[in-house]
């Protein structure tokens, strides 16, 4: 049965959340956003409106705030929740583990409690390829082991997955989807929304675009002595609009009936750091100065997905390739050199 009511999107002003809100609107859903703006700006909402013509009902609140969440569930008839809200910086999670456990697990616990109290049965959870730790083989399939992780951020994702899996066992009337994203990059083709990191970016693509726009002098390529084709690490970079569409397809799966599903969302293609930098230069006709720097602690040589399961079960297939990703990331950055202001 199709969801006729509202989809609560936690973290809906963030990078993946804002793109997913657009996809939801385009597919006839009615998203309600809750975001505490710890890593987003209200301008994202203006941009969502500009792209979609719709200004979704938005609550500026922390998902851990039970009273506020009670109000949101009371005021809106919700069919399903997409739970993006969380902190995501691996390095910061090592420095401030309690903050990560409190925020990521605490918000999920409040959310699940309110869902239960209000009879909301369906949830899509933003997990991460990071739950696989250092994979024994690539491409990674969903049945590969998870849990051997080395930082608190990844551990919060693992713990939340375990909670959701236990709940699914205990209550077969629930519809639970765990989506393990690989490396989201790119931006909406309009250039109106995109990734807007605070401070110096940790991740490769925003670092590259900030070098391109002149905010940073050069890229450090962390290690060229890995056992890969050019010595740099391999990742599975997925366009954020493909990822957003994956959420709509997942909702359609949950509409078919309850149960637990787990999908890798990636492209099934591995790209090295140097391949990505070269694709960026070629796609945008820009030179990115870079130097080879020491390895970054904790990096794994290779991580890319086998996405056959998502294709077979929900028809998930990417529409954008690495060149599209590079073009759209740059389009976003050059139109918004200082991000959303
Ligand atoms: P993001 O930081 O842009 O978005 C997260 C949003 O959640 C932000 O707008 C933030 O303000 C909000 N938020 C955080 N804690 C909150 C709380 N307690 N209450 C209310 N709002 C809160 O990050 P993103 O890249 O869009 O990631 C979304 C989700 O996907 C996260 O759970 C992240 O861990 C996961 N994920 C991201 C990546 C990635 O590389 N971007 C990869 C795998 C998984
Ligand atoms: C990609 C590659 C770096 C920056 C992280 C999280 C993961 C997930 C996605 C949330 C690596 C190299 C990077 C730079 C570089 N997030 N690099 N110079 O590490 O695969 O994954 O984001 O769940 O949990 O760990 O992504 O973009 O940081 O790095 O050479 O300035 O680029 O060494 O090989 P990563 P990334």
Helix content: 25-40%
Radius of gyration: 19 Å
**Distance, first to last CA:** 40 Å
Count the strands? 13
Query: How much strand content do the residues show?
Result: 15-25%
What is the N-to-C order of secondary-structure elements (H for helix, E for strand)? EHEHEHEHHEHEEHEEEHEEHEHH
| Overall average pLDDT | 98
Class of secondary structure makeup: alpha/beta
> Which small-molecule species are bound to the chains here?
nicotinamide-adenine-dinucleotide, UDP-4-deoxy-4-formamido-beta-L-arabinopyranose
Contiguous runs where pLDDT drops below 50 for at least 5 residues:
none
| Principal-axes shape call | globular
Spatial strand sequence of the major β-sheet: 3-2-1-4-5-6-11
For the report, how would you describe the main beta sheet? 7 strands, parallel
What is the number of helical segments per DSSP (H or I, 4+ residues)? 11
């Amino acid at each position: 049965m199709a969801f006729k009511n509202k989809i609560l999107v936690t973290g809906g002003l963030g990078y993946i959340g804002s793109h997913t809100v657009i996809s939801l609107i385009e597919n006839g859903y009615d998203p309600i956003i809750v975001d505490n703006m710890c890593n987003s700006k209200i301008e994202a909402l203006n941009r969502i409106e500009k792209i979609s013509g719709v200004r979704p009902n938005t609550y500026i609140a922390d998902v851990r705030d039970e009273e506020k969440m009670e109000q949101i569930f009371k005021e809106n008839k919700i069919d399903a929740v997409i739970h993006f809200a969380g902190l995501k910086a691996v390095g910061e999670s090592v420095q401030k583990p309690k903050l990560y456990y409190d925020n990521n697990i605490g918000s999920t616990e409040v959310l699940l409690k309110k869902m239960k109290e209000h009879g909301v049965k369906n949830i899509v959870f933003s997990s991460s390829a990071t739950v696989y730790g250092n994979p024994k083989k690539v491409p990674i399939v969903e049945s590969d082991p998870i849990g051997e992780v080395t930082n608190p951020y990844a551990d919060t994702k693992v713990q939340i997955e375990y909670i959701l899996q236990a709940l699914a066992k205990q209550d077969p009337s629930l519809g639970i989807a765990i989506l393990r994203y690989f490396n989201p990059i790119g931006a909406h083709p309009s250039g109106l929304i995109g990734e807007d990191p605070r401070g110096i970016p940790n991740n490769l693509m925003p670092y590259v675009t900030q070098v391109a726009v002149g905010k940073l002098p050069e890229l450090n390529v962390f290690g060229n002595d890995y056992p890969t084709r050019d010595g740099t690490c391999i990742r599975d970079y997925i366009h954020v609009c493909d990822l957003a569409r994956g959420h709509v397809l997942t909702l359609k799966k949950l509409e078919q009936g309850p149960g637990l599903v787990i999908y890798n969302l990636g492209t099934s293609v591995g790209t090295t750091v140097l391949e990505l930098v070269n694709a960026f230069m070629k796609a945008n006709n820009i030179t990115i100065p870079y130097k080879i720097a020491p390895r970054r602690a904790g990096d794994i040589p290779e991580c890319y997905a086998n996405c056959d399961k998502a294709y077979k079960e929900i028809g998930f297939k990417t529409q954008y390739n690495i060149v599209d990703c590079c073009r759209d990331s740059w389009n976003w950055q050059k139109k918004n050199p200082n991000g959303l202001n």
